[in-house]
């Protein structure tokens, strides 16, 4: 995924946290097809150098995108694109649903039954 390495800079005047801006740049690259499922991302330190941010900022952005379901971390193999933004959005909403259900006393199997009844 070298196309994400194009000249992109973080807007230091934007109140958005740097890690969110980095995540946004990677999310955009995935959405525009510059990075396809299965493709590996450059190492975090390389992305950090290009974006002129701390490596920990990039790592935080990568973890956020992993939690959204867009990226996959594999020991010894780096970080790769796991899914499209659409799938990531569905996974995010599913996590929210499960958390809401648990807070309201529903078991996971009950949530599954509810979702099935809607489909």
TrEMBL record:
Keywords: DNA-binding, Transcription, Transcription regulation. The keyword Transcription regulation applies. Residues 16-84 form the HTH gntR-type domain. PANTHER family: GNTR-FAMILY TRANSCRIPTIONAL REGULATOR (PTHR38445:SF7), HTH-TYPE TRANSCRIPTIONAL REPRESSOR YTRA (PTHR38445). This is GntR family transcriptional regulator. It comes from Agromyces tropicus.
């Amino acid at each position: 995924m070298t196309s994400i390495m194009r000249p992109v800079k973080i807007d230091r005047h934007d109140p958005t946290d740097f890690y969110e801006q980095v995540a946004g740049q990677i999310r955009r690259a995935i959405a525009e097809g510059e990075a396809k499922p299965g493709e590996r991302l450059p190492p975090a330190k390389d992305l950090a150098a290009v974006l002129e941010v701390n490596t920990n900022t990039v790592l935080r952005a990568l973890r956020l995108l992993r939690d959204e379901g867009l990226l996959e971390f594999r020991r010894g193999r780096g970080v790769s694109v796991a899914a499209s933004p659409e799938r990531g959005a569905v996974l995010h909403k599913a996590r929210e649903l499960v958390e809401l259900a648990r807070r309201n006393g529903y078991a996971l199997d009950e949530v599954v039954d509810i979702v099935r009844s809607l489909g």
